[in-house]
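Re: beginner question about structure tokens

> Can someone show what the tokenized structure looks like for a real chain? I only ever see the sequence side.

Sure, here's an example I had lying around. Input first:
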Amino acid sequence: MAGKTHGVLARVIENWQTSWLVNLSSGAPLTINGQSMLYSRGTPDQVRPFDFKGTRGVRWDKGSNYGLYFGDVFSKVPDPQCLSIDPSLRPFCSLNAIAEKSSENIILQNAQPGTRGNVGLNSIEAAGVWNADMAVTKGFKIGETFTGQIRVDARNIFNHPIPGAPPAGFAAPPNDGGAVMNLNDTNPFGQMPLKGASAGYWIPSQRQFQLKLRLDF
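And the corresponding structure tokens:
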């Protein structure tokens, strides 16, 4: 194409290169957490059947910096254990249960004191992620002995939300972009605090451009 072009136009359209890098990753295992036990946070009790795998579907509200791992399916309600204490102390009870919004039925609640919850470890899967990077390079020549390259790197070129992976430690707080899976957290259950993590170079962030110049002589 344009093989017979010469002069300035030939210098403009020659020596272009593009490259793409696409990463696809399935979600890491997630553990739903309840109230703390002796050495770590425990797991809750699931008191009604519910298809967590079929319900998951990350929702990113327009204009909001956070998303919801389960969409608008769940709501937080006081844990039934709070009803067993003196009415004057109930406002200080920090235990929560998770109810289905449509039916208001409790699905998850904290295990009773001295017991372990029936929800197993790594019982659900975090959201999968994908990311696309692109680079465009233009080569040029200066005189007989000098050559150069102008390169533009685009990271996360589609500016797609990329939630961070959950931390390795059991029941640890989520990384930037990870999902909150603690019933008693002050944030909504399943909330993903950031659309793009920025904790380090190993976690993709919002779209970024870099302009580079290289001279060879």
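Each token stands for a local structural state, so reading them left to right follows the chain. The chain has one domain: 7-216.
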